[in-house]
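Handoff note, outgoing to incoming analyst
You'll be picking up this chain. Sequence as last confirmed:
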Amino acid sequence: MGNNNRVCEILGMQYPIVQAAMNWITNANMVAAVSNAGGMGVLGPNAGAKYNGSKKISTENRYRNELRKVKAKTDKNFAVNVILPKEGKDDTYAQTVIDVALEAGVKTFVSVGTVNKALFQKVKENHATLIHHELTPTPDAAKKAEETGADMIIATGYDEGGVIPQNRIGTFSIVPTIVDAVDIPVIAAGGINDIRGVRAAFALGAEGVYAGTRFIVSKECPASDITKQDIIRSKAHDLVFVSALQRSTPHKLALELEKNYENGTSSNEEMSLRPGMLEGKLDEGIVSVNTAIDMIQEVKSCEDIVKELMADYIQQKSPMKQ
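Most recent structure output, in case you need it:
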């Protein structure tokens, strides 16, 4: 890790670590904590959602409220996640998220999905930075994103939590191929839960890391404490496939979905994320994590997680610090 890090320079942050945009379990408190620690927090889909029984509000108002809270908690840069529909499909949701974020002064977006020229253009026309996350990364897709205006690429391996890439190529294999394909900085993702994963990512040519599962088990993450303890107790060999797109720790619903998947029956596992991840109803939902959960031993603050993962970089920035 060199001191002249392009991810840090472009995003205006101390350390090249970005908190992943996880569904249901990000909020202003968590995002601000990561950014205040020197990384970059990202508001993900359904950011700021509450437990069951809370009053439902529109996407627009929820994001507006959460963005206001983030800005009250930090003056550091942070990002907003945008789910990209395929070109030609309804993009109302994505347009709404972008509009509300731009109105709030957001200058960085993490786009997820295949390249959408119109939405890329909208972000770039407003002089914002675009980090693109292809769900199934390939060198060709990375090149297309770069040509369309992406400032950085997230290269995700099959090791990751959340929506799993469909090319079944591990982090160690996909990151260098993406690094070789583009001139813009590459951020590595997939199974990065400790400093060894960070070192490996940088050795492969990445200039930053994108971490999700490790930040679930943080004090500031709104995920249920039950869910956090479940992740600490679970091991990689415990995980089950609930579909071609998701893994989960093994509980009642997850095991039922696994059986359905093995029998070729499709199911909508996305509907199970809120109860499992946010509400801690393990038997009624799924807990989607990466394959390196053995490394997660305890709940820590976002600041301590950033310091732990960025220890080498911190030492280089402050060589006299003991």
